[in-house]
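Milestone 3.1: sequence recovery, worked example.
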């Protein structure tokens, strides 16, 4: 099975305010995007499982056909910059997506 990094052109995460981190997965073309969306490889449930979180922590999950992109946002366990926060900007949270295998 190919890894998501072999199919998507951009995988990133960033702050979405002080209490959330948002993830963007952008595909190079419609065929790649449709393969992942139609195959159900990336869903709210699969992302909760991948990140080891309860689905209730995912505040938003959007497939954006016009941009060939998937975006989801999760609530942080602690506010950005608070004691114990290891990624103030949220830009290192996408790691689990790198090795994610797409059936």
């Amino acid at each position: 099975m190919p890894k998501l990094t072999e199919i998507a052109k951009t995988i990133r995460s960033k702050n979405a305010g002080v209490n959330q981190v948002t993830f963007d997965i952008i595909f190079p073309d419609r065929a790649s995007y449709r393969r992942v969306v139609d195959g159900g490889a990336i869903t709210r449930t699969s992302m909760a499982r991948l990140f080891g979180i309860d689905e209730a922590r995912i505040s938003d999950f959007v497939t954006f056909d016009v941009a060939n992109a998937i975006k989801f946002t999760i609530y942080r366990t602690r506010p950005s910059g608070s004691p114990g926060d290891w990624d103030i900007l949220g830009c290192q949270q996408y790691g689990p997506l790198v090795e994610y295998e797409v059936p």
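DSSP finds four helices and four strands in the chain. Residues 30-38 form the longest helix (9 residues).
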